[in-house]
Amino acid sequence: MKKVLFTNCSFSKEEISKLKKNNIEIIPANENLDEDKLIKALQGCDGYVIGGTDRASKKVIDSTNLGLIVFYGAGYEDYVDIPSANKIGIPVANTPRANSYTVAEHAMAMILEGVKNVVWLNNTTKKGNWFRRRTWNLQGKTLGIIGMGTIGGHVATTMKRAFDMNILYVSRTPKLEAEKRLGARKVKLDKLLKESDVITIHASLNNDTADMLKLKELKQMKKHAILVNAARARIVNGKSLKTALENDYLAKAVFDAYYEEPAPKKNKDKWGLLSLADDKFVITPHTAYNTKEAFENMNNMVIENLIAFFKGKKVPHRVN
User: Of all residues in the chain, what percent carry a pLDDT higher than 90?
Assistant: First the structure.
């Protein structure tokens, strides 16, 4: 029986039974493990499914005898030391596109919150202040999308149909179908920053995108513009973002992940964003993917990866 540690395991009894029939035993660890605890828990394991904020660091990989690592989601970059896995020859897999619609829906909720200031208005009203802050319409405005992949494409389609927004995008490759169907235009980053009323980030975090938006770039945005980031926080330089928000280079930022996860207490936040008012910075706890349907999709893809690997077949969602 092959043993696989799954942190924050979400498999049902039926799914665990299916794996057992394929000679795979799931060892659930329903907590986030620090490096030392994780190494101890992985002793004797043949596989590891990262379902929490734990990480397959170099030390973890070098201290264990793993055959396969699976990241429970799409954005594995912050959670797996790929060079270390490659050096040893460990396949790394993820669950791409399993939660694309889910993340796109959350991103659109973030866009609406950013423009309409729902969180700030709720909190001020509950404090006894009946203050009707004037907002603005999305209809006919320009949406800039950084990373026009599956998620970005879903956002573009819905925002075009719902609000007739003009779509600009930055992408490594042209999206001809979106250009034809939505009138989307591929532009350089500078043009997108200068012309967009809302900018939403859906790029993967890598060496090219880390700190893509620093103070120089943020200063190019419209003063009323909203920056939405449903991808990784580090695509935007944190200290630059705080400076830009404090100096009104842009109106507001709405993030779904932070530079440190779980996010620190305000008094220990070295980026300073968590101390900003709700009409400047709003954050959700890396939860854009978190729906029943998305988990069902991710579970199925994890099971596919595990069964294929332990049967000696090609891992279907391998990333390295």
Answer: 91
Q: What is the DSSP letter of 270?
A: T
- Domain assignment present for 320: no
Query: Do 119 and 245 lie in a common domain?
Result: yes
Give the separation between CA 170 and CA 145, rounded to whole angstroms: 6
Same domain? For 298 and 194 the reply is no
Per the structure, the complete domain to which residue 71 belongs is given by: 2-98+291-310
Kindly state whether residue 115 falls inside one of the protein's structural domains. Answer: yes
- Same-domain pairing of 92 and 157: no
Is 118 contained in some domain? yes
Q: Which of the residues are catalytic?
A: 232, 261, 286
Residues 151 and 245 in one domain: yes
**Residue 230 CB partners (closer than 8 Å, separation 6+):** 103, 106, 107, 110, 151, 200, 201, 202, 256, 288
pLDDT band per the 50, 70, 90 thresholds, residue 184: very high
Give yes or no for a cis peptide into 264 (omega within 30° of 0). Answer: no
The C-alpha atoms of residue 252 and residue 280 are separated, in whole angstroms, by: 4
Total domain count, the chain: 2
Q: Are strands 226-229 and 24-29 parallel, antiparallel or unpaired?
A: unpaired
pLDDT higher than threshold 90 for residue 74: no
Q: What is the pLDDT of residues 136-151, one digit of tens each?
A: 999 999 999 999 999 9
User: Which segments of the chain does DSSP mark as H helices, in order?
Assistant: 13-21, 35-41, 58-62, 82-88, 100-116, 118-126, 150-163, 176-182, 189-195, 215-218, 238-246, 292-310
Question: pLDDT (tens digit, 9 = 90+) per residue, 200-217?
Answer: 999 988 889 999 999 999
**pLDDT tens readout for residues 272-318:** 999 999 999 999 999 998 999 999 999 999 999 999 999 999 999 99
Residue with tokens 């630059």: 240
SS3 22: coil
- Give me the CATH number covering residue 73: 3.40.50.720
Determine if the pTM surpasses 0.90: no
